[in-house]
Design brief:
Blueprint (H helix, E strand, L loop, with lengths): L1 H32 L2 E15 L21 E14 L3 E9 L1 H7 L12 E9 L4 E9 L19 H4 L4 E12 L2 E8 L14 E8 L2 E8 L2 E11 L4 E12 L2 E15 L2 E13 L13 E13 L2 E12 L4 E2 L5 E2 L1 E12 L1
Antiparallel strand pairs: 1-2, 1-18, 2-3, 3-4, 4-5, 5-6, 6-7, 7-8, 8-9, 9-10, 10-11, 11-12, 12-13, 13-14, 14-15, 15-18, 16-17
Length: 348
């Protein structure tokens, strides 16, 4: 009788415990596989001053590259990103507000009379562990630099980045080929037509990657760009980034290369240099930046200090151009421009 009583006791007490633990484990599994919604972004502002040119008025000069070109205390942008990550499918809605955002999307007044605030807007499907399809508007796969100020080391941007595409709208397929190899194929609207396609023509992109090194190509209705982007950790504290590109559109275009050495001096501070050579091609070319076969050598020295989620970036930049394209304080043409920028970026 005692044995029967003990057995019943076990059934009464132990079985519910087992059921509870089982349901708890199931809830954990369910929680781990539950789709995740995330909210992130950046806010940035800066101060800019020329050292050998006017800082206001008709004699004011700025580098020929994109972003961080406004005088005095100036606004960057508020970048707000909402994303939903499921087991197989998800989306990204990336919105921008402010001068940097306007420059990044060219205001895009193709459809809405009030302009556009969409930096990226796409859905994706993980078809398998090695294939992902992306449909919509996504930032370009070409180049070393990006639109987000927190993802670039230098706050001001390069000529190579500024005159390549910023974003595309279309369909792309990413492939994980194994052993650190990857590939991408895409069909897209012509460059900069990110809201819809009024031309009826399409651009085609391709990428081959190996262990952080990428060879990119873009064919865009008669225009062609090939681009190499990569970098190497030469030590625990020293990184060297590399970008090189060639663009041609019926004999007119540009080519150039940029090096990005960066030295981490502590957990909270890194100093880096961008040295870039950029040249326009085609004697009768309309000015891509400055005009007929002009070349530029630009050096940018940037410090990056982190204070929690805040990044402070002091920056000295020298742009030396083969033609006198800038103005000094007296309005006289000069071939070089030196400037200082102090940027503050908060990321969340």
């Amino acid at each position: 009788m005692k044995a029967i009583t003990n057995t019943n006791f076990v059934k009464i007490i132990v079985f519910p415990v087992i059921l509870f633990l089982g349901s708890f484990a199931f809830a954990q599994d369910e929680e781990e596989t539950k789709p995740k919604f995330s909210f992130s972004g950046t806010v940035d502002a800066y101060y800019r001053a020329n050292l050998n040119s006017a800082n206001s008025g008709e004699n004011y000069s700025a580098p020929g590259s994109s972003f961080a070109n406004l005088p005095g205390f100036a606004l960057g942008m508020a970048n707000v990103i909402g994303s939903y990550e499921g087991e197989k499918v998800g989306f990204v809605a990336d919105l921008v507000f402010g001068p940097r955002g306007t420059d990044a999307i060219f205001a895009s007044p193709m459809y809405s009379l009030t302009g556009n605030i969409v930096n990226q807007l796409y859905v994706y499907w993980n078809v398998s562990e090695s294939v992902t399809l992306t449909f919509g508007n996504f930032n370009t796969f070409l180049g070393y630099e990006v639109i987000s100020p927190s993802a670039n080391f230098n706050y001001s941007t390069s000529y190579l980045f500024s005159y390549g595409p910023f974003s595309h709208t279309g369909l792309k397929a990413d492939f994980d080929l194994g052993n650190d190899w990857s590939a991408m194929l895409s069909v897209m609207n012509p460059t900069d037509l990110t809201e819809f396609n009024p031309s009826g023509t399409y651009a085609f992109g391709a990428q081959l990657g190996y262990s952080g090194q990428y060879l990119n190509a873009l064919i865009d209705h008669g225009a062609f760009e090939i681009d190499y982007t990569g970098g190497f950790d030469l030590s625990d504290s020293f990184f060297l980034g590399i970008n090189a590109a060639y663009f041609d559109n019926d004999g007119e275009g540009f080519y150039g290369t940029a090096l990005y050495p960066q030295l981490k001096t502590s957990d909270n501070f890194t100093i880096g240099l961008r040295g870039e050579y950029f040249a326009e091609t085609g004697e009768d070319a309309e000015a891509i930046v400055f005009g007929d076969e002009t070349n530029v050598f630009a050096v940018t020295l940037t410090g990056s200090a982190t204070i929690g989620d805040l990044i402070i970036k002091p920056e000295l930049r020298l742009d030396s151009v083969s033609e006198d394209v800038f103005l000094n304080s007296d309005g006289e043409p000069i071939g070089s421009l030196s400037s200082f920028v102090l940027a503050a970026i908060y990321q969340f």
